[in-house]
Specification:
The longest helix has 16 residues. The protein is α+β, with helices and mostly antiparallel strands. Strand 18 and strand 19 form a beta hairpin. The radius of gyration is 28 Å and the shape is elongated. It has two domains: 271 residues, no CATH class; 136 residues, Metal Binding Protein, Guanine Nucleotide Exchange Factor, Chain A (Beta Complex), CATH 2.170.150. It is 18% helix and 31% strand. The strands form four sheets. Strands 1, 2, 6, 7, 18, 19, 21, 22, 23 and 24 form a ten-stranded mixed β-sheet that branches. The protein has a seven-stranded mixed β-sheet with strand order 9-10-11-15-14-13-12. Its EC number is 2.3.2.26. It catalyses: S-ubiquitinyl-[E2 ubiquitin-conjugating enzyme]-L-cysteine + [acceptor protein]-L-lysine = [E2 ubiquitin-conjugating enzyme]-L-cysteine + N(6)-ubiquitinyl-[acceptor protein]-L-lysine. It is an enzyme of class 2 (transferase).
Length: 469
């Protein structure tokens, strides 16, 4: 799994002097939480050090600022023996200090909470529903760009000229930037857990893409099945003579949309391959589950109605061109891939409640989406040394959700886990993906203030959908 590309974009577990900012496009005020550890002092409260939480336009601070410390004697105070000042910078979002309101202790001890007006710089925060987010994240251009890495470089047309047939300016720019001698144009398909190579040794595969993961099962395109789009009773005159009776009666699939021994098709969540493309000793079929022969992990399923095709899940199977993995190419944070999985599933199931099951139908996780689009910032307040440049924390958009982890007992007793609740969608993914989803959500919960990590029987978590707003 790819690691975060930037330290500033990585998630920080809640620690001493952590802060958490949540901005919702639908609300005027953002929520700010700051951990303020109490100072242990033998002196009485009247003589104890003064602590202060300050909200700046691009910062959060704890402690007395330097200018206030210097003026303490003038107002009858005394300069503390030890003056500490902790701060954190926040990029891309402007806070309005004058709008700070409802300050309180969220846990009656050390968790300070307040409301403050926040605005994103250079771009307005617009509410986005699940449909729009799923559509934005499932842009087929990313699939096309990845497939184009296999295309032989072509000579770019002269400036001001026209492109040759089948070419594109974007493709030519990419190809010109990489020498064919230096670029590995081989499709590598391996198990992420054990590294088992699934493709036959020396096999050269072409790579194309499908617009959606369920295209082979649900596409109503006339290019796919003429009989489906025409209701099996096509009138040649109605279509300008474009169909023949032979074509109408045929149930033959358009070969452009089906993998072959020498061609595989990639989509947002899965890679669809022909059995003849794979090394028969690298995988096993256990009923309707494809298992890696090396580590016995679930890696995919046979494609419905296509006995020779297998759909391998990106979470467990790495698809790489040269040394560039698809998830690494598409995202630089693995949680974004998991967010895409959730959004696609919500769109397909028409539900904001999902049960994540392994391929053997065992439920592991219940997810209930709360917010389709929020902007979060989480980080630590540090004591800055003189003349030290402080790295800014970059807010990121995310989807926020409630989740519940099932064990054997709760899965048996909860009607949502066994399909008795019609409002809950069921999605089946490899067992390893269930574990990855659970781990990512638990890590996100540990980034939240302790008082905000649970609601009733549910935990609160989030998944990033981008590294910055």
């Amino acid at each position: 799994m790819p690691e975060d590309s930037e330290q500033s974009s990585s998630l920080n577990e809640w620690h001493e002097r952590s802060f958490f900012l949540e901005v919702k496009p639908r609300t005027d005020l953002a929520s700010l939480f700051v951990d303020c550890p109490p100072k242990i002092s033998a002196e009485n409260k009247e003589n104890a050090d003064i602590d202060l939480v300050r909200v700046g336009s691009h910062s959060v601070e704890i402690g007395l600022p330097t200018n206030l410390v210097a003026n303490l004697p003038a107002i009858g105070g005394t300069i503390p023996d030890e003056v500490q000042h902790f701060s954190a910078k926040i990029a891309d979002i402007s806070l309005s200090p004058a709008s700070v309101c409802t300050p309180k202790w969220a846990d009656s001890n050390r968790l300070f909470m307040c409301k403050v007006h926040a605005e994103a710089e250079n771009i307005p925060l617009v509410p986005k529903n699940f449909h729009r987010l799923a559509r934005d994240m499932c842009n087929a251009d990313y699939l096309e760009d990845f497939c184009e890495m296999l295309v032989e470089p072509t000579t770019p047309p002269p400036q001001g000229g026209t492109l040759s047939k089948g070419g594109s300016s974007k493709r030519n720019r990419k190809s010109a930037s990489q020498s064919p001698e230096k670029r590995d144009k081989t499709v590598h398909i391996t198990c992420r857990k054990c590294g088992m190579k699934l493709v036959q040794e020396g096999k050269k595969l072409a790579l194309e893409y499908l617009p959606t993961d369920d295209w082979l099962q649900t596409s109503a395109s006339g290019d796919f099945f003429c009989r489906d789009s025409c209701g099996a009773k096509c009138d040649p005159n109605r279509h300008g003579g474009g169909h023949s009776s032979k074509g109408v009666e045929s149930t033959k699939v358009n070969p452009d949309w089906v993998p072959t021994e020498n061609k595989t098709l990639i989509s947002h969540l899965t890679l669809t391959v022909h059995k003849q493309s794979l090394n028969e000793k690298s995988y096993e079929l256990n009923g309707q589950i494809v298992i890696c022969a090396g580590c016995r992990s679930e890696i995919g399923q046979p494609v419905k109605n296509y006995p020779d095709l297998l759909a391998l899940h990106h979470a467990i199977v790495s698809t790489a061109i040269g040394n560039k993995d698809f998830i690494e190419f598409r995202f630089n944070d693995y949680s974004m891939f998991l967010a895409q999985l959730i959004l696609i599933s919500c769109e397909n199931q028409s539900s904001v409640k999902l049960v994540i099951r392994s391929l053997d139908k065992t439920p592991y996780l219940l997810i209930w989406l709360l917010e389709s689009y929020v902007v979060l910032a989480t980080g630590m307040l540090h004591e800055k040394a003189p003349n030290e440049n402080e790295e800014a924390v970059r807010p990121f958009p995310a989807i926020k959700m409630l989740y519940k982890v099932f064990d054997a007992a709760t899965a048996a007793s909860d009607p949502r886990a066994n399909g008795e609740d019609a409002s809950v969608g069921l999605i089946d993914v490899p067992f390893g993906c269930c574990l990855q989803m659970t781990e990512a959500l638990l890590k996100s919960s540990h980034c939240l203030p302790p008082a905000c990590r649970s609601v009733g029987q549910f935990y609160v978590g989030f998944l990033k959908i981008a590294n910055s707003i």
